[in-house]
Design brief:
Length: 212
Amino acid sequence: MKNYPNVTIFDHPLIRHKVAILRDEKTSMKEFRELVEEITTLMVYEAFKDVPTKKVMVKTPLETTEQTMVEDDAVSIVPILRAGLGMVNGVHTLFPTARVGHIGMYRDEETLDPHEYYCKLPDGIENSIAILLDPMLATGGSAVAAIEFLKKRGCKDIRLMNIIGAPEGIEVVANAHPDVKVYISTLDRNLNENGYIVPGLGDAGDRLFGTK
């Protein structure tokens, strides 16, 4: 796969360990959901070293001191429904006051094209870093469309976060939106004839919510 400057693929032993359990077909729904949140938190910690900050004065039991805190409304969270919902709490662990928007999309099973059915975003999202969440980056169609929705709302700093990514999807997103930073926990081999990531982990939404 070509090297893209705005694409980061993590190589962290804790993430690799958790992804291995995540893939296992025997992993329960509860454990799967917890792992998705934990992996997301690890990714956000690494990806947001440049989050906007401000200086504040804090009174300790001994003296008043200048300290650094994250800017108010620095980030907004936008999961792609439905599987992206499983990553929201992982972001909220580090940014508990971040507001959440939602983009609903489904993939045509024959053409694999994305179709929007819902979009609700927080007011002022264009002034924050928009974190777009989806556990799987397969063909890249849904991610490209969701990024376009955010750009139409005026978002200038968009960051896409996926737990598993296929080379095909990464290339589609990087070519369509080279200005968007993409963070992938794990790069998988490729897509199969049905557009699913292999080796993958199955349908993330089904495994998160116990549906088939």
